[in-house]
Amino acid sequence: MSFLMPTLLLLVLLDLGAADFNISSLSGLLSPALAESLLVALPPCHLTGGKASLSVRRVNETKGITHNFTVTPCRGRRDLVSVVYSSGSFTVTRLNAYQLTNLVPGTSYFVSYSVEKGNAVEHSNRVRMATLPRRKVETLGLGMARTGGMIVITVLLSVAMFLLVVGFIVALALGARK
Fold first, then answer.
1. Are 148 and 116 in the same domain?
2. Which of 40, 113, 115, 168 is the right S-S partner for 124, CB 3.0 to 4.6 Å?
């Protein structure tokens, strides 16, 4: 029993020093706009002003890239996507994320934070994220087909422009007679 006390004390002290936080991958909810980038949630609000190091490495490699920045202040809850204003016709959202750029398309990465604030250093969990594969332009569904309304408006504007030009020529001809 006496050997158990120092072990429990050591576990309690280790637990107090490990103030880790979690980040998560939201694949499917918010996909990157480009095949070469990822969006990573920012560290929690209690680390505002701290020096953050975001380490990114490919799944099968041991060495990676580190991005350093200062944690931005919080304005309310720090969700990856937060609704700023919502009405019946539209919704305004704010994206609170760090964008990793110049990555290899169709590749899996491990992403984790290390934030230093004062004398304390906090680490996040390691999250596996993947960039989108690059696709040929021909396979993209752009959805830019002409609708019937667009054709009608184009025809009406063309006829109106023709009548305007004819009226201008007639006005010039009548003005030159006098």
1. no
2. 113
User: Same domain for 169 and 115?
Assistant: no
- What would the mean pLDDT of 119-143 be, rounded to a whole number? 78
pTM score, two decimals?
Answer: 0.56
pLDDT tens-digit readout, 14-27: 333 343 677 765 54
CA angle 88, 93, 95 (to 5 degrees): 170
Given a contact cutoff of 8 angstroms between Cβ atoms, the answer to whether 156 and 147 are in contact is no
pLDDT at 6 over 50: no
Look up residue 147 and give its two tokens. 């609708």
Residue (of 30, 31, 11) closest to 82 by Cα position: 30
Query: Which helix or strand (DSSP H or E) is residue 81 part of?
Result: strand 81-86
Encode burial over 86-98: b for 16+ CB neighbours within 10 A, e otherwise. Answer: eeeeeeeeeebbb
Q: What is the distance between the alpha carbons of residues 112 and 109, in angstroms, rounded to a whole number?
A: 10
